[in-house]
Write a structure and sequence with these properties.
Rossmann fold, six-stranded mixed beta sheet, 35% helix, 2 domains, alpha/beta, globular
Length: 283
């Protein structure tokens, strides 16, 4: 059996974070041909649900970069890798020392998520909090309200490239931690090219909670022989390593473009869908 695995942001979704009509039609063609597909995304279930709703994503969904897997038919998480209490406090200390505001994603009883955050210092952090709460439907609470016993999926932050790199270096010797990072907002998007550096993001998970490990888990669970993966960021490299075929849209990070078997069209020009129509001769 072949399984097609899509990253969402920057890959399957357009610049409005939606599945375009052309891509929606392509997914319908895949269902008619019984070509199975799912997602592997850094989003939570709530955040992933809106763009893929009504597009028949019925197979297990790889969420939070592989830290958790959600089974839609059973309405439960079948698989997860969480951070220990000690690891969480180590990460929080690294963020605090580098003046980065942590956003702690947790798994709550009843298969729900909640987000705890430090004091919001910048306009970008306030916008991020609003995004998580309003668009992605995550309950927000201050870090001071976070209980001692908590199931933490990952810790996220925004900051300068230098601060992000210092945090990455500080957890490099932790065998069960992995950090993903990238550019969140380019200088030209911030409108202050001369004085304001690009804003970067960093996301820290359990090292076993990767997209690649999650795909290997699904291989056995779904009896998959052939995996075709699409992604654009460094959190997609692990699934490129385990996939049979891997493709990157033209907008992908340089390391991902190099790792891909082939570079396809831009994510905002239905690059994935156009490639799939040719790859499977869909009409």
């Amino acid at each position: 059996m072949t399984l097609v695995v899509f990253d969402l942001d920057g890959t399957l979704l357009d610049k409005s974070s939606k599945i375009s009509p052309y891509t929606a039609d392509t997914l319908a063609m895949m269902r008619q041909r019984e070509i199975r597909y799912t997602v592997a995304t850094g989003r939570t279930l709530q955040a992933a649900a809106a763009p893929i709703k009504d597009h028949h994503f019925t197979l297990p969904l790889i969420l939070k970069n592989g830290a958790i897997i959600w089974c839609p038919n059973e309405e439960r998480y079948s698989h997860h890798h969480l951070l220990t209490r000690e690891e969480v406090w180590h990460v929080l200390a690294a963020f605090t020392l580098n003046e980065l505001t942590p956003f702690v994603f947790s798994l709550q009883p009843g298969q729900q998520h909640a987000l705890y955050h430090g004091p919001l210092k910048s306009r970008s952090e306030h916008k991020l909090a609003d995004l998580f709460e309003a668009e992605r439907h995550l309950p927000l609470a201050p870090l001071t309200a976070m209980p001692d016993e908590i199931s933490v999926i990952n810790v996220f932050s925004l900051g300068s490239a230098e601060a992000v790199e210092r945090v990455r270096a500080s957890i490099a010797d932790e065998p069960h931690l992995v950090a993903y990072s990238g550019i969140a907002i380019h200088e030209k998007e911030m409108g202050h090219v001369a004085t304001q550096p690009a804003l970067h993001w960093i996301d820290i998970h359990h090292s076993n909670g990767s997209k690649g490990n999650a795909i290997n888990h699904l291989r056995g669970e779904l009896n998959v022989e052939h995996v075709i993966a699409f992604g654009d960021g460094d959190n997609d490299l692990s699934m490129f390593e385990c996939a049979t075929e891997c493709y990157a849209p033209a907008n992908a990070d340089p390391t991902v473009l190099t790792a891909a078997d082939q570079v396809i069209g831009h994510h905002d020009e239905d690059g994935v869908a156009r490639f799939l129509r040719k790859r499977f001769d869909l009409a």
